[in-house]
Amino acid sequence: MNILILGAGQVGSSAAESLVSEANDITIVDVAPERLSLLQDRMDLRTVVGNAGHPSILAQAGAEDADLVLAVTASDETNLVACKLAATLFNTPTKIARIHSAEYLAHPAIFTADNFCVDFAICPEQIVTEYIKKLMEFPEALQVLDFASGKVSLVAVRAFYGGPLVGQQLQELRKHVPNVDTRVAAIFRKDRPIIPEGDTIIEAEDEVFFLAATEDIRFVMRELRRLDKPVKRVMIAGGGKIGRRLGKATENDYQVRIIEYNQKICESLSENLHKTMVLHGDATDETLLESESIAEMDVFCSLTNDDENNIMSSLLAKRMGAHKVVALINRSAYVDLVQSSGIDIAISPAQVTIGSLLAYVRHGDVAAVHSLRRGAAEAIELVAHGDKKSSKVVGRKVEEIRLPKGATIGAIVRGLSASKNIPSGTAVNGQKEDRGLAAQDLQVIIAHHDTVIESEDHVILFVVNRKMIRQVEQLFQVNVGFL
């Protein structure tokens, strides 16, 4: 696929890194030549220096031949104009725009073909907010991801010493949860993937990924690790775009406090958040944290724009007794270091966001993509089409499908619409509501060796190595004769 990326910031760079390794032709545009130079030194891609909102720059970057334009500059207006130009002047098939402003997102008509021609509007701040909110709902989890319109969840937990499954084989799982069907999709031990088999033994500190119907998740988690007490008190460091959104999204469910250094931002937060306590101060101030009872906080989230500040305030909060600390880390090189340093969860906004973009780039009918373990692994929801003659998966048992080593079919959802999912906040022409009606009679089937895949099934796979993705996608593509 010929992909034009506009903007070489964190999201654009991460998108380029993910896509260039999958045999795509990538051109990236940015006004800063030093950013482009760094990317070109690391990756096999083409760069163009200039303003992505100018027709001449888009032409120079090859917009005429692009299959997809990914507009992720820091300016909403530039992204909107670039998508409009790509559609009007160059007839680009797919246009994706990064949008920060809630003002634009509140009016979906702005993105239609009659206006700015945006096929998919993505808001990284909202995606990260929803991601953190999910972690608050399941405080024991390292990651919680939804598939099939929220009917299936993939959860990562760390097995603990003395847990009921530690030291036992996976085939014993059914004895512990006899009334719930679940599937361990992958295990990571000391950062190395282990393909789960019936005789695989779970060890303490293993990172275990399992799939189950969303309604059964908490019950299964109880068997894998000790359940934490429900979250009641939350402290947020940083009242910027993500901190503000998270406060708004959680203040009705938890006791929320936000610490913000900027006086004007504090005033704005106080006016817009009705139940959140806003504190003017520095989140690395030990005296302030102690006076605000940091030791009683169930979750401490450091969400400022400064990685170092987020790391230091999170470490300080943890040392002072906060139960769980979450740090927002923009530099991908820091994430793995920080995750093992006493910080419970380090979140890379670019990695959390990238899955939403990949669903529009993958071959075949892809409903959802989630990047896992800082981009090393991937969970993907593919829709099976065709029949036994035209498809390599339809009409076949799971054990008969020739998956590459390291790829696992975890679950199947039957009864959903075969069209692609519309991510939250971007419903177009009523498609989100239509999908809800189609899902009323769906079945969630945890995959076993004798499970047969039918046409239009949504198949959820876990792939421990992203290099295998292309092979997995090819399995789900129907023969030309079927069309």
Structural write-up:
The chain is globular and about 55 Å long. It has 16 helices and 22 strands. The protein has helices at 10-20, 33-42, 55-60, 76-90, 102-105, 124-137, 173-176, 217-224, 241-250, 263-272, 286-291, 307-319, 332-339, 349-358, 431-438, 469-475; strands at 2-6, 25-30, 46-49, 68-71, 94-98, 120-122, 141-147, 152-158, 182-189, 192-194, 207-213, 233-237, 255-260, 277-280, 299-302, 324-328, 345-347, 366-372, 377-383, 407-414, 443-446, 458-463. The protein has 483 residues and is an alpha/beta fold. It starts with a strand and ends in an 8-residue tail after the last helix. The protein folds into three domains: 2-122, Rossmann fold (3-Layer(aba) Sandwich), CATH 3.40.50; 233-352, NAD(P)-binding Rossmann-like Domain (Rossmann fold, 3-Layer(aba) Sandwich), CATH 3.40.50; 354-482, Regulator of K+ conductance, C-terminal domain (Alpha-Beta Plaits). A six-stranded parallel β-sheet has the order 3-2-1-4-5-6, sandwiched between helices. A six-stranded parallel β-sheet has the order 14-13-12-15-16-17, sandwiched between helices. A five-stranded antiparallel β-sheet has the order 7-8-11-9-10.
List the strand order in the largest sheet: 3-2-1-4-5-6
* Range of strand content: 15-25%
Give the termini distance in whole angstroms: 21 Å
Task: Specify the CATH class of the largest domain.
Answer: Alpha Beta
The CATH H-level homologous superfamily of the largest domain: Regulator of K+ conductance, C-terminal domain
Q: Low-confidence runs (pLDDT<50, min 5 residues)?
A: 418-439
Reported for the largest beta sheet, the result is: 6 strands, parallel
Q: Give me the CATH architecture of the largest domain, please.
A: 2-Layer Sandwich
* Overall mean confidence score, pLDDT: 87
Shape: globular
Here the CATH topology of the largest domain equals Alpha-Beta Plaits
The radius of gyration computed from the alpha-carbon positions, rounded to a whole number of angstroms, is 23 Å
Return the domain count.
3
Structural class, by secondary structure, is: alpha/beta
Q: What is the tally of helical segments? A: 16
